[in-house]
Specification:
This protein has 87 residues and is mainly alpha-helical. The protein has a domain of 53 residues. It contains 4 helices and no strands. α2 crosses α4.
Length: 87
C-alpha cells in the first residue's frame, strides 16, 4: 500500500466507504441580540435612543440567557443520571 493511500486527505486516497461528497448543510447563525430585536420589533437605534426599549430588550436578553443555561443544566443532568427525573 502506498503512502498516498494512507493519507485520507490525499487525492489518491482510496476508501471503499466513501460514497461521494457530503450533502451541503446551510445554517443561518443569528445572535441572541438579533433574535430578540426581531422578536420585539425594535431596531438597534431604538434600543440605543430609548431607555424603555433598552430595558425591554435587556429583560428578554436575561430571560433568554436564563432559559439557555437551564436547558444546558437539564441536558447535563440527563447525561449524568439517565434514569432519574430532572427538575
Amino acid at each position: 500500500m502506498s503512502r498516498a493511500n494512507l493519507n485520507p486527505f490525499s487525492p489518491h486516497h482510496s476508501d471503499a466507504s466513501f460514497a461521494g461528497p457530503a450533502p451541503i448543510e446551510h445554517r443561518i447563525i443569528r445572535s441572541r441580540l438579533n433574535r430578540i430585536l426581531a422578536f420585539t420589533g425594535l431596531s438597534i437605534d431604538d434600543v440605543v435612543n430609548s431607555r424603555i426599549a433598552k430595558n425591554h430588550v435587556r429583560g428578554y436578553f436575561k430571560l433568554s440567557r436564563f432559559t439557555e443555561r437551564r436547558d444546558e443544566i437539564v441536558e447535563l443532568e440527563k447525561q449524568w443520571n439517565p434514569t432519574g427525573r430532572s427538575r
